[in-house]
Specification:
This protein is mainly alpha-helical. The protein has three helices and no strands. 73% of the residues lie in helices and 0% in strands.
Length: 91
């Protein structure tokens, strides 16, 4: 087992939890565009992940996944939600 495997597993668990929050938020949203709201939530969570990475002193490079990767995934997901689905209005 590599040294970064346990850390990667913890990162994937945190990411799955945050993804579930975004999914539930989008399902429960009653506003005009749930994709825009879920995208904004992704950005807020990404800022939190990157902030925690800065505070805890995690390096962006190294073995395994870390909070930097988690923040970048959430940023990409937020951008995809806003640009791909956010321009459409709910019917």
């Amino acid at each position: 087992m590599r040294a970064g495997d346990d850390h990667s597993t913890a990162t994937l668990v945190r990411l799955a939890f945050r993804f579930a929050i975004v999914l539930l938020f989008a399902i429960a949203w009653r506003g005009e565009s749930p994709a825009r709201a879920a995208g904004a939530l992704c950005f807020v969570l990404a800022v939190g992940c990157v902030g925690m990475a800065l505070v805890s002193g995690e390096k962006p490079k190294g073995h395994g996944l870390n909070r930097w990767h988690e923040g970048m995934f959430l940023t990409s997901l937020g951008l995809a939600l806003i640009f791909a689905f956010g321009s459409r209005t709910a019917s």
